[in-house]
Design goal:
TIM Barrel, three-stranded antiparallel sheet
């Protein structure tokens, strides 16, 4: 573990000036996530990767914790270029500590001694060149919490935009006004994990619900394309009352925000609840429909949730995109993103035409070289 921390601490850059302020006695305050940590000299924020050295805030730079090519449906973005490939990268660290995290090897790498993920050396140019080589249409920061590595993500996204690629965050949404304004010019797509609608549950995960709800509101106001995911965990966040309040909150922002209810399976440190069933997902979707949401999807159980993998026109009900898991089985939208049946504009970021799907399952591209600690 000390070796990994040495590696991380050697691959840093000073934080963007927009994302921290200097306080007295060489302390700083970080604005990359909703904790807004005041950090003393020689100390770290809650995320474990942003730290104060000599009265300056230093942040991760020059590496990735992992890279993977994913169908864009895996992120999941269902209203963005169906069938497209998303070149996905992550770093290390997270500002929450969810006991059911499915990316714990990277997100908890500096918090859990069993989570060890050796960093891979990278440059923004190299990542974008690889994305283009594999035919990706989007570059996405994911696998750890991207808000705490926003400076690196922006450097990658600047290269990606110049190459004509879309950019996206897969995030817990624990943002601040400062970090969202910093990201605003460079992020096209943003998936938020809305893990619960109960502040007590968020305290169990190491956060607060307030910043997450404000992030969702701000992202929609900014015109960034937003999709929401709720991992449905029996006995934790699946009560009818909680799901109703959550769905009504989203519908109050826009009834056209896609809401994905996905199936929990026992992982990492959470082995007590039973796994989510198709019936659980169907019940949550019905609650969302009653709340007024027009695009609800059920994930992680391909072929077991009826129509909830497909996209249908919210006006006439015509089938627009047919899916099985990440596989696109049918695409019927007009090039301008309208329904061929009634002409209604379908909210999203659609491509002019459907290109063949390069991959319906994730795959790992050729990895960069591992970084070794300098001694």
């Amino acid at each position: 573990m000390p070796a990994l921390r040495d590696i991380v601490d050697q691959n840093v850059a000073e934080a963007a000036p927009e994302l921290y302020e200097k306080l007295d006695r060489e302390r700083v305050r970080c604005f990359s996530c909703g904790h807004c940590c005041p950090i003393s000299e020689g100390q770290r924020g809650v995320c474990k990767v942003r730290f104060n050295r000599g009265g300056k805030l230093y942040v991760p730079w020059g590496y990735v914790g992992c890279v993977q090519c994913d169908p864009i449906e895996k992120k999941p973005f269902f209203h963005v270029a169906p069938g497209a490939l998303a070149y996905s990268f992550g770093m290390l660290g997270c500002d929450l500590h969810c006991s059911y995290c499915q990316n714990w090897v990277t997100s908890q790498a500096l918090r859990d001694p069993e989570a060890v993920s050796a960093p891979l050396r990278a440059t923004p140019q190299m990542l974008v060149q690889e994305a283009l080589r594999y035919g990706a249409k989007a570059v996405v920061s994911t696998y750890n919490e991207p808000l705490i590595t926003s400076e690196w993500a922006v450097a990658v996204f600047q290269e990606a935009r110049a190459a004509g690629l879309m950019t996206g965050f897969v995030s817990n949404g624990n943002g601040t006004e400062q970090v969202l304004e910093y990201l605003r010019p460079w992020v096209d797509l943003y998936k938020v994990d809305l893990k619960s609608f109960d502040d007590r549950h968020y305290h169990e995960l190491g956060g607060r619900i307030g910043p997450i709800l404000e992030t969702i509101r701000r992202l929609h106001e900014m015109g960034i394309w937003v999709e929401i995911v709720t991992l449905l965990i029996p006995g934790f966040n699946d009560s009818a009352e909680e799901l109703t309040r959550l769905a009504e909150f989203l519908a109050g922002i826009s009834p056209y925000i896609p809401w994905h209810v996905t199936a929990f399976h026992q992982d990492y440190k959470m082995s007590d609840p039973r796994n989510t069933t198709p019936e659980d997902l169907l019940r949550a979707a019905e609650i969302g429909q009653k709340a007024g949401l027009r695009y609800i999807y059920a994930g992680n159980l391909p072929g077991q949730v009826g129509e909830l993998e497909n996209t249908r026109c919210h006006n006439c009900g015509k089938l627009l995109v047919e899916r099985y898991g990440y596989l696109i089985r049918g695409y019927h939208l007009r090039p301008e993103g309208t329904c061929p049946g009634c002409g209604t504009a379908i909210p999203g970021r659609w491509q002019g035409q459907f290109d063949r799907q390069l991959a319906a399952v994730p795959f790992v591209p050729r990895p960069p070289k591992r970084i070794r600690a300098e001694v």
